[in-house]
Amino acid sequence: MKLYYSPGACALASQIILREANLKFDLVKTDLKTKQTANGDFKKVNPKGYIPVLELDTGEVLTEGAAILQWIADQVPEKNLVPRWGTKERYKALEWLNFIATELHKGISIFFSPEVKDEVRESLLKKLHLRLEVLDQHLRSNTFILGNGFTVADAYAFNILRWTQLLKIDISSYASILRLMETVSTRDSVRAAIAAEGLKG
Ligand SMILES: N[C@@H](CCC(=O)N[C@@H](CS)C(=O)NCC(=O)O)C(=O)O
Questions:
Q1: Quick check: do 2-79+189-196 and 88-186 share a fold?
Q2: pLDDT digits (tens, 9 = 90+) for 116-141
Q3: Nearest atom within ligand 1 for CA of residue 35
Q4: CA 123 to mean position of chain CA atoms
Q5: Which of the listed residues 4, 30, 50 should we mutate to test ligand 1's pocket, taking the one with most ligand atoms within 8 A of CB?
Q6: Atom 3 of ligand 1 has which residue's CA nearest to it?
Q7: Domain 2-79+189-196: which CATH number of 3.40.30.10, 3.30.2310.20, 3.40.50.1820, 3.40.640.10
Q8: Whose C-alpha lies nearest to ligand 1, atom 1?
Q9: Which pLDDT does position 197 carry in this prediction?
Q10: pLDDT value at position 200?
Q11: 155, 107, 102, 150: which is closest to 128 by C-alpha?
Q12: Does the beta carbon of 65 lie inside 6 Å of ligand 1?
């Protein structure tokens, strides 16, 4: 299997879950500006031009982080990285993964764009803080996003929320989010994934 990534970007969660699942994979560094990898044109792998991409041993390609995370987790059901298909809990997982993908991932990554000027920055930030408050409140009574155990939702949220530091988005008032970040950051899979991407903890 191959995981296409760019250092610090949103393939980190997939790498964490591949490590949690103890599956064999190779990392393929992708230049998101030029859309090139060491093997050539990345758009031949994913015409959408973005990571994460998981290339299976069959040659099939999976895209979209939330789908990739669930596919990996479903390979190792005994590890409880996602609730089983057909259960009510799986729909709660989908609810949170969708929230992370559409509200947090896109709500935070927009600030990497130089096109976001001060006038819109304030209103985007206001909206983002409403979403962060939802997560923080949820985590006041839940150790992890889906309850008691670490799952794909925590890996994805951790991946995205790390960016707030780079972007100087202040999350210091969200004590429960900070607690989750700290808890997740100490996992062996997370430490190894961060090191493999050449990032600082
Ligand atoms: N809808 C995709 C979005 C993934 C995404 O935003 N990837 C970013 C890195 S975090 C990227 O590759 N951006 C390059 C581009 O859009 O050209 C998903 O949920 O996986």
A1: no
A2: 998 899 999 999 999 999 999 999 99
A3: 17
A4: 24
A5: 50
A6: 64
A7: 3.40.30.10
A8: 64
A9: 98
A10: 87
A11: 107
A12: yes
- What is the reported pTM? 0.98
Average pLDDT, rounded, for the chain: 97
Which residue's alpha carbon is at the smallest distance from atom 16 of ligand 1?
50
Following DSSP, what letter does each residue of 91-141 receive, concatenated?
A: HHHHHHHHHIIIIIIHHHHGGG-TT--HHHHHHHHHHHHHHHHHHHHHHHS
Instruction: State if residue 64 touches ligand 1 by the CB under 6 angstroms criterion.
Output: yes
Residue with tokens 């989750």: 180
Q: Flag whether pLDDT at 201 surpasses 80.
A: no
Distance 105 CA to ligand 1 centre (A): 9
The residue with tokens 């493999």 is 196
Q: Would you kindly state where each structural domain of the chain is located, as residue ranges?
A: 2-79+189-196, 88-186
Spacing of C-alpha 161 from chain mean position: 9
What CATH number belongs to 88-186?
A: 1.20.1050.10
Residue 51 beta carbon below 6 angstroms from any ligand 1 atom: yes
Cα four-point dihedral sign 111, 115, 117, 119: negative
Q: At residue 31, what are phi and psi to the nearest 5 degrees?
A: -90, 110
